[in-house]
Design brief:
By secondary structure, the protein is of the alpha+beta class. The chain has 27 helices and 24 strands. Helices cover 56% and strands 12% of the residues. Bound molecules: adenosine-5'-triphosphate. It comes from Citrus sinensis (Sweet orange).
Length: 955
């Protein structure tokens, strides 16, 4: 791995509950207006406050004028209060856990801004670090790594995720089946977290392993693959937890799995398992383990873990829980043990069943040890305590193998790029650890941190040197505290602690006690090694970050990191291919040395970087800045028209400072020299201020006196004026009072008059209203009477009219009947006369005919006599014509009479013919009609009045 050009230190928690109080790593800092008090275990230290720094703090701590621990912490606290969680220290980023979501800090817009931006141009940000790493990789073609370190819960994992997101943004590539590599790495997180994370005191989801995510890039800077490497899984947690922590999440998830799963693995309440019930914490706030179980299964699906493999994984997890419940009792032989009771045997059988191995072999593997000597094979029994140790060792081994299997599976699922030229690695590893009891794990972690520290020292030192070279200053005598001696103590070959440990592991008779004694002997004169009094197995190392006492008790076993041969044989023989796959047969005994391939640092590392700066020339100012600030110390130098560099040198000499350096453009000051100059500057400025103050005070006092006198005169005249005003006011008030009284009296009199008047009016109104109402009632009654009368009269008139009408009609009918009868009689007589005429006519016709015949007869008889009687005939003819005329007349009359008779018959009764009559009493009728009209129409019949009567009406 190429040395990292950039580092991220995830800082310790800083809580600023009160703006003036910060708590950092167990030390309380009280920040007053003038100075910073640090309450440490060694008592109280007081530091001057950095008055140069802006109230919101500086974004790069190298800009602080005073580089001391409280100043640095105060700066972080001030920034934290403004939600500025990132701060630079040179090119190191310090991130402070905000304990709240700050989405605006990580959105695409933010990524866009940091893309390609100059380092330091924008506010400190994790994206800026990733950007520098990426650009360096692209420009120089070198791999880079970013170190994320800090104590548990500081936010390393979150920071790592942000880095990954940004790097994926820069080098994004669509991955297999549409999922990007970054997505695949993130999708694998739930699986890793379920098996590698646990609740600790500081973090509910604490990663209990170190993680190195390697993003592989192709020549175009596109992500072409990724790998996740894990380190130092906290194996001891599988068997041992303390309240209120939890074991790995997967155990609780499985206990909360659906009933059929629990039944299959014979699981129950987590409280019933020894590996879980050592702590009272079973559930996590806001986390549903059943949901998490299903989410983990889903994530396993995504990662490509088959159904059978998932089943086997959870079977192994269940087996570990049952394994933990196997208890041992003393056996009959000395130093031997047996399975304690039926309950333990049940768990033993269940474990064997789940691991698909022989129950008897499991029992033997737990309580016996086989020792192979050149001569013979000896089987040694284990006492109950050793058997428990054996049981726990098996549980830890199985679990760590399971975890490694998962990591391998995830890596093969994400896919590697064997042709990748460059990588960017992100290392997420815990920082320096010091607990009450520290074991081999802490030793390894702290060793890792020592390594980082050395790397870090060299790195910062190198940068300092570069700056000094650039400025051409003499730097040969710069010292810095090196931790090489600690590293020598731990890793030197031969003779270091690790070498001695490896040596001890190789001797079968070695115990932790002999190992500790060896250490005491070897390092009795080493400044970094301390033997604690009254202890036979612990030792203390003076690390760069402080002293840590380690318990050597389990160092040998843990260092060996070997799988007990019996356990190996047992599980290799498992009928379950998954389980046997976790324990492939060993080719041969492998070296047991610990493998540490990475480094970490923590916050106090950061301070070391500052201390290194202090060891050199921590304060540097350009000539202009220096003269601008400290010119007041030597005004004559400023007036002397010297070159800036010479002027700076003269001022420094005048102040009697030694050891400073003048570069090409800057003045380099030793630690503390800036403070000294500041103090002198403050003194000079103070003296000047005092003179100015004196003059100003005199001026102010005189000005105040004149103003006071002027004010007194003005006050007096005002006061007199006020008295006169008061007198006038009194007089005015009296007059006003009289006026008011007068008006008041008139007002009351008028009010009472108006009241009486209004009462009288009211009374009158009432009475008048009463009279009017009576009158109105009377008129109303009268009107009603008139209406009734009118109705009555109309009724009488109507009745009378009806009777008259009826009489008229009767009279008319009688008269008409009489006339008609007379007519009829005449007609009948006429008819009878017509018959007689007709008879006479007929007779006459017969007579004519007879005469005609007689004429014709006589014509013949009297032909001769014709001439004689011509005259007589002519006479006769005349008589005949006359008679014919009479006949015609008679006929005509008959016809007329017939016509008249026919008409008479037609007109004969019952038909009554209306004959217009002359109305003599029209006025009377009209008046009646008018009256009837006025009396309102009662019925429609009455509206239509016959105004013409057929006969003379006599009333
Ligand atoms: N940048 C951040 N923004 C918001 N919340 C954060 C951030 N960093 C950390 N946190 C919060 O702090 C919690 C702990 O962070 P994280 O798990 O990253 O710590 P860690 O240093 O990895 O701890 P451990 O070493 O125990 O795994 C997170 O669950 C999250 O709630």
């Amino acid at each position: 791995m190429v040395a990292a050009p950039v580092n991220i230190i995830v800082g310790s928690h800083v809580w600023v509950e009160h703006p003036e109080l910060a708590w950092v790593d167990g030390e309380v800092f009280k920040i007053s207006a003038e100075e910073v008090h640090v309450h440490t275990t060694n008592g109280q230290t007081v530091f001057p406050k950095d008055t140069e720094a802006p109230p919101g703090g500086v974004d790069d701590m190298t800009k602080l004028s005073y580089l001391h621990e409280p100043g640095v912490l105060h700066n972080l606290a001030a920034r934290y209060e403004l939600n500025e969680i990132y701060t630079y220290t040179g090119n190191i980023l310090i991130a402070i856990n905000p304990f709240q979501r700050l989405p605006h800090l990580y959105d695409t817009h933010m990524m866009e801004q940091y893309k390609g931006a100059q380092f330091g141009e924008l506010s400190p940000h994790v994206f800026a670090i990733a950007d520098v790493a990426y650009r360096a990789m692209i420009n120089e073609g070198k791999s880079n790594s970013i170190l994320v370190s800090g104590e548990s819960g500081a936010g390393k994992t979150e920071t790592t995720k942000m880095l990954m997101r940004y790097l994926a943004y820069l080098g994004g590539r669509s991955g297999v089946e549409g999922r990007t590599v970054e997505q695949q790495v993130l999708e694998s997180n739930p699986v890793l977290e379920a098996f590698g994370n646990a609740k600790t005191v500081r973090n509910n989801n604490s990663s209990r392993f170190g993680k190195f995510v390697e993003l592989q890039f192709d020549k175009n800077g596109r992500i072409s693959g990724a790998a996740v490497r894990t380190y130092l899984l906290e194996r001891s947690r599988v068997c041992q937890i303390s309240d209120p922590e939890r074991n790995y999440h997967c155990f609780y998830l499985l206990c909360a799995a659906p009933p059929e799963v629990r039944e299959k693995f014979k699981l129950g309440d987590p409280k019933s398992f020894h590996y879980l019930n050592q702590s009272n914490c079973y559930a996590l706030d806001g986390v549903d383990d059943t949901e998490e179980y299903l989410a983990t299964r889903r994530a396993m699906d995504i990662v490509g873990i088959s159904e059978e493999e998932q089943d086997a994984i959870f079977r192994v997890v269940a087996a570990i829980l049952h394994l933990g419940n196997i208890e041992f009792a003393k056996g009959e032989e000395a130093d031997s043990s047996v399975i304690k009771d039926e309950k333990s045997r049940f768990h033993l059988n269940t474990t064997a069943e789940l691991l698909k191995c022989d129950a008897k072999s499991l029992e033997d593997a737990l309580i016996n040890r086989v020792m192979v000597t050149p001569e013979e094979v000896i089987t040694r029994t284990l006492d109950p305590v050793a058997a428990v140790g054996s049981r726990d060792a098996l549980a830890k081994t199985v679990y760590s193998r399971l975890f490694d299997w998962l990591v391998d599976k995830i890596n093969s699922s994400i896919g590697q790029d064997p042709n990748s030229r460059t990588i960017i690695g992100v290392l997420d590893i815990y920082g320096f650890e010091s607990f009450k009891l520290n074991s081999f794990e802490q030793f390894c972690i702290n060793f890792t941190n020592e390594k980082l520290q050395q790397h870090f020292n060299q790195h910062v030192f190198k940068m300092e040197q570069e700056e000094y070279t650039k400025e051409e200053i003499n730097w040969s005598y710069i010292e810095f505290v090196d931790n090489q001696d600690v590293l020598d103590l731990i890793e030197k070959k031969p003779g270091g602690i690790i070498a001695l440990l490896d040596e001890a592991c190789m001797f079968p008779k070695s115990t932790h006690e002999t190992f500790a004694q060896k250490l005491y002997q070897t390092f009795k004169s080493n400044k970094r090694f301390i033997k604690p009094k009254l202890s036979r197995t612990s030792f203390t190392i003076s690390h760069y970050a402080g002293e840590v006492t380690y318990l050597a008790d389990l160092f040998l076993d843990k260092n060996k990191d070997y799988v007990v041969a019996e356990h190996q044989v047992l599980l290799t023989a498992s009928k379950c291919p998954f389980v046997s796959g976790l324990f492939p047969p060993l080719p041969e005994e492998s070296s047991k040395s610990s493998k540490f391939s990475s480094i970490g640092s923590r916050f106090k590392g950061v301070l070391e970087a500052i201390r290194i700066s202090c060891a050199g020339y921590p304060t540097r100012r350009t000539f202009y800045e220096f003269l601008h600030r400290f010119g007041v110390l030597a005004p004559d130098v400023l007036d002397g028209n010297y070159d800036d560099k010479v002027a700076c040198e003269k001022i420094l000499d005048k102040m009697g400072l030694k050891g400073y350096q003048i570069g090409k453009t800057k003045v380099f000051l030793r630690a503390g020299q800036m403070a000294e100059l500041d103090a002198r500057r403050a003194e000079v400025l103070g003296n000047a201020a005092r003179i100015i103050q004196r003059q100003i005070r005199t001026y102010i006092a005189r000005k105040e006196f004149i103003a006071l006198r002027k004010a007194a005169i003005v006050l007096q005249s005002y006061w007199r004026g006020i008295l006169a005003c008061k007198l006038y006011e009194q007089l005015r008030r009296e007059a006003a009072a009289l006026k008011i009284q007068k008006n008041f009296h008139s007002y009351t009199a008028r009010t009472s008059y108006l009241t009486a008047r209004s009462s009288a009016i009211q009374l009158q109104t009432g009475l008048r209203a009463m009279v009017a109402r009576n009158e109105f009632r009377f008129r109303k009654q009268t009107k009603a009477a008139i209406i009734i009368e009118a109705y009555l009269r109309r009724h009488i008139a109507c009745s009378y009219y009806k009777s008259l009408k009826k009489a008229a009609v009767i009279t008319q009918c009688g008269w008409r009947r009489r006339v008609a009868r007379r007519e009829l009689r005449n007609l009948k007589m006429a008819a009878r006369e017509t018959g007689a005429l007709k008879e006479a006519k007929d007779k006459l016709e017969k007579h004519v005919e007879e005469l005609t015949w007689r004429l014709q007869f006589e014509k013949q008889l009297r032909t001769n006599l014709e001439e004689e009687k011509a005259q007589e005939i002519a006479k006769l003819q005349d008589a005949l014509q006359a008679m014919q005329l009479q006949v015609e007349e008679a006929n005509f009359r008959i016809l007329k009479e017939q016509e008249a008779a026919r008409k008479a018959i037609e007109e004969a009764p019952p038909i009554v013919k209306e004959t217009p009559v002359i109305v003599h009493d029209t006025e009377k009728i009209e008046s009646l009609t008018a009256e009837v009209d006025s009396l309102k129409v009662c019925t429609l019949n009455w509206v239509i009045i016959i105004v013409k009567l057929p006969f003379d009406l006599q009333v």
